[in-house]
Amino acid sequence: MQAVVRWFVAVAASVLAFFVVAVPWAVLSHGGKDPWEVIGPVAGVVAAGVLAAVGWWASQASTAPTGASSMREVRQSARGQGNITQTGGDRDGVPAGRRRVGRESIRQKARGGGDIDQVGGNRA
Question: What is the pTM of this model?
């Protein structure tokens, strides 16, 4: 439902942007000397830009976390000369057969001259 409301706002903002550009231009163009063949496309380009920007925002509604099915994010960074171990997930917590696979976003970076072990997910 939230996605529908966001898309409604996006379309309404686009239509509003069209009229915010077109109406003052038509009124202030010294008696309407600028033809609508010029005003309409320019206002349409502005409305399309607004729809692209606000439409991107509206499309993010489907990626928002919702309760138990939220996306887990793991960010890890390691730097050093020694042994570095990072685990950004579960380790032997729940059996693999009973584990619920969800969406994950994992980013890892590592530098160094030693041993580096990074795990960004479940390790059974």
Answer: 0.49
As a whole number of angstroms, the distance between CA 115 and CA 97 comes to 31
Q: How far apart are CA 30 and CA 104, in angstroms?
A: 58
Residue 89 near residue 123 (C-beta atoms within 8 A): yes
Reported as a single tens digit per residue, the pLDDT across 1-58 is 788 899 999 999 999 999 999 988 888 876 556 678 888 999 999 999 999 999 999 9
In this predicted structure, what is the pLDDT of residue 97?
52
What is the model's pLDDT at position 35? 76
Q: Following DSSP, what letter does each residue of 56-124 receive, concatenated?
A: HHHHGGGGS--GGGPPEEEEEEEEESS-EEEE-S-BSSS-TTTPPP--EEEEEEEEESS-EEEE-S-B-
Using CA atoms, how far apart are residues 69 and 101, in angstroms rounded to an integer? Answer: 9
Instruction: Give dist(CA 36, CA 39) in Å, integer.
Output: 5
Contact 92, 61 (CB under 8 A): no
